[in-house]
């Protein structure tokens, strides 16, 4: 097929509807292009539970092997399990998943050896250019010597590596409900949790890429309703929800209340700083004020960055940071090749809770200090014009600081908000935080009025 790659090659990955926007023939060209751009003589490939994933990943492997690269297929895996394989074997990797997108979508997350990200500026644009050329003119000539394709299971080694990074010795028994959303958490959780002193209550562990129960996106409150109810009915100590490719986790306390990913970032940062005193911690600019505060209180150095995993990973590498967190529930660890793993974050929460006698809500209270709005999307005709109008409304105020590291951030001593344009939709995304609920609500409504022209 001659594809419109502008529709499927995003900033950090490939993603689109199968077979309308891309298919196995195109996946084969992506495999060949990936090998050419990375210069790899061996790669590792994994896939999620979507109906189209085995065929697409197999085609990618054929394309890579035709260019002379040896391919290790690790089969069904979570995205962070693919990053583990890339790091452990020091090989470039490709993961076939569309994360939390609906069933008809699929995609490719690619990385260089050691789980280093491949984005627009780090190879993805070059891969796209080759695939476009080949889709019009025909596939390139095969290499003189075709690569091999072999299979290898990495789940046990992945679990062992994660468990080596937390101390289980003083952990008390816990009851935990896990909602895998019919995604890859249903594959990884049983093996990772097996040595833990936990009673596991599984929800939607059956691998089903049609997502029959709810979308595998735990950041949407509608998708954790079942988990919240089950935590209460089971009298569990906590609940954990994973997204479709299980690289993000969302946590619910014993009262069935969702815990802010910023509070989880602060909790894990404190634990990582206990292991690595004086370390640097990366946080994006829409995480809570509490994150840099907790980092400083624990002797660490906070570094603020733009939203997006490529920016986080770049800063992790540049600064030698020990940990990074995003308000989207992505958590990055130096001990995991600077890659994101929701599973390791979940283990930190379990061990932190199990290492003391209080409840999870009591434990995280020290990390959840301010009132936040969550992300609020507004559809606008002109993103730039509406952002400029908001900036103009605050530019003359003496108590206000404005920065444009990523979108527009307006802050005072008592509140801040960030307004960012979506890269793919005519939306502006607003996040507001304040020292109390009343101030947050006032600033949220004031900002929304300016954004929406009310």
UniProtKB/TrEMBL annotation:
InterPro entries: A-D-PHexomutase_a/b/a-I, A-D-PHexomutase_a/b/a-I/II/III, A-D-PHexomutase_a/b/a-II, A-D-PHexomutase_a/b/a-III, A-D-PHexomutase_C, A-D-PHexomutase_C_sf, Alpha-D-phosphohexomutase_SF. Residues 7-136, 157-256, 264-370 form the Alpha-D-phosphohexomutase alpha/beta/alpha domain. The keyword Phosphoprotein applies. Its cofactor is Mg(2+). Keywords: Isomerase, Magnesium, Metal-binding, Phosphoprotein. CDD domains: PMM_PGM. The keyword Magnesium applies. Residues 375-447 form the Alpha-D-phosphohexomutase C-terminal domain. Belongs to the phosphohexose mutase family. This is Phosphomannomutase/phosphoglucomutase. The lineage of its organism: Bacteria, Bacillati, Actinomycetota, Actinomycetes, Kitasatosporales.
């Amino acid at each position: 097929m001659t594809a419109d790659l502008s529709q499927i090659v995003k900033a950090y990955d490939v993603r689109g509807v199968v077979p309308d926007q891309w298919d196995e023939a195109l996946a084969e060209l992506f495999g060949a292009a990936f090998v050419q751009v990375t210069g790899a003589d061996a790669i590792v490939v994994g896939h999620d539970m979507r109906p189209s994933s085995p065929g697409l990943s197999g085609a990618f492997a054929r394309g890579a092997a035709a260019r002379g690269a040896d391919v290790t297929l690790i089969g069904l895996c979570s995205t962070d399990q693919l990053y583990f394989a890339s790091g452990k074997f020091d090989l470039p990797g490709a993961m076939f998943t569309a994360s939390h997108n609906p069933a008809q979508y699929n995609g490719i997350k690619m990385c260089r050896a050691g789980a280093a990200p491949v984005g627009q500026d780090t190879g993805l644009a070059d891969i796209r250019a080759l695939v476009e050329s080949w889709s019009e003119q025909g596939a390139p000539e095969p290499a003189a010597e075709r690569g091999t394709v072999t299979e290898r299971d990495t789940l046990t080694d992945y679990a062992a590596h994660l468990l080596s990074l937390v101390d289980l010795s003083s952990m008390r028994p816990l009851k935990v409900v896990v909602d895998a959303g019919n995604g890859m958490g249903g594959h990884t959780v049983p093996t990772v949790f097996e040595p833990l002193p936990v009673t596991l209550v599984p929800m939607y562990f059956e691998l089903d890429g049609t997502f029959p129960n709810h979308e595998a996106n735990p950041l949407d409150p509608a998708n954790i309703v079942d988990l919240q109810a089950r935590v209460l009915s089971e009298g569990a100590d906590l609940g954990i929800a994973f997204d479709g490719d299980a690289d993000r986790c969302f946590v619910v306390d014993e009262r069935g209340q969702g815990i802010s990913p910023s509070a989880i970032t602060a909790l894990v940062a404190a634990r990582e700083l206990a292991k690595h005193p004086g370390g640097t911690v990366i946080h994006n600019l829409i995480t809570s004020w509490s994150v840099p505060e907790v980092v400083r209180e624990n002797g660490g150095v906070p570094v603020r960055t733009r939203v997006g995993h490529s920016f986080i990973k770049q800063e992790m590498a540049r600064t030698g940071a020990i940990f990074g967190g995003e308000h989207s529930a992505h958590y990055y660890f130096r001990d995991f090749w600077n890659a994101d793993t929701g599973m390791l974050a979940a283990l930190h929460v379990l061990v932190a809770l199990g290492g003391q006698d209080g409840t999870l809500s009591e434990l995280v209270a020290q990390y959840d200090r301010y009132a936040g709005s969550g992300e609020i999307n507004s559809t606008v005709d002109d993103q730039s014009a509406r952002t400029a109008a908001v900036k103009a409304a605050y530019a003359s105020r003496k108590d206000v600081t404005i920065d444009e590291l990523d979108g527009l951030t307006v802050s005072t001593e008592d509140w801040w908000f960030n307004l960012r344009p979506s890269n793919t939709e005519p939306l502006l995304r607003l996040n507001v935080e304040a020292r109390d609920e009343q101030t947050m609500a006032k600033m949220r409504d004031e900002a929304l009025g300016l954004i929406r022209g009310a």
